[in-house]
Amino acid sequence: MPQWLCNQLMSAFQKKDLRQIRLLNDCWFYYRAKPDKTKETPDSAGFNL
What we know:
This protein has two helices and no strands. By secondary structure, the chain is mainly α.
C-alpha cells in the first residue's frame, strides 16, 4: 500500500471520518484491481495475490 494512502487512512480513522474511510477503501481496491501488474514497486511487494 502506498505511504500516502496509509497516512490518509490513519488520519481518517483518527478523525472517525466514515466518508473518507470508505472513499480511501474504494481507492485501494481500485488500485489493487488495475490489470497492469507487470511492474512491482516496493509499496506493493508481497501483496500479489
